[in-house]
Amino acid sequence: MSWYCLMVCGHLSLPGVGNNSDGILVLGATNIPWVLDAAIRRRFEKRIYIPLPEEPARAAMFRLHLGNTPHNLTEADLRQLARKTDGYSGADISIIVRDALMQPVRKVQSATHFKKVRGPSRSNSSVMVDDLLMPCSPGDPDAIEMTWMDVPGDKLLEPIVCMVRS
Question: What is the pLDDT of residues 22-65, one digit of tens each?
């Protein structure tokens, strides 16, 4: 699926859009221009084709959407994600990252067992503590049966976003 940007400058006569004064710039974008009414397409004087992002741009989009969220993705992982998402738009990549960012939350919420782990203290990240709780499998030898509602907020160590190898 490709993206198109349609634009027109100057006078535009569309019911409900402005007051027909000069100097109006109307910019519209669609990835399905063939379903637009012919009359609306005629009003857009110029059509600019904007292709889907190439691999380096997709890798940059993954970085951008991850932002400051803790993750253990390497540059090689980001390049692999970019390769695997050929044909994806920026919006598609945004949805993928948003879903990946929610996976740790889902893991915590669905967990029935947690285990104590070592990690940075919530009050002072330079201090390591041994009593943080992280979701684990019921079969883990250190598993404690509990739900996320039983875990004190300052003791929860959320899983970080990572690449799942298949």
Answer: 566 777 778 778 888 888 877 777 788 888 999 999 999 999 99
Partners of 26 in the β-ladder = 8
Task: Outline where DSSP puts E strands in the chain.
Answer: 3-9, 25-30, 46-50, 113-120, 128-135, 144-145
Tens of pLDDT, residues 107-121: 999 999 999 999 888
Torsion sign across C-alpha atoms 39, 43, 48, 52: negative
CA distance 144 to 136: 9
Residues 6+ apart with CB under 8 A from 159: 103, 104, 107, 108, 134, 135
- Identify the CATH number of the domain defined by range 53-166: 1.10.8.60
Domain ranges of the chain: 3-50, 53-166
| Cα 32 to Cα 1, 28, 93, 135, distances in angstroms | 8, 12, 19, 44
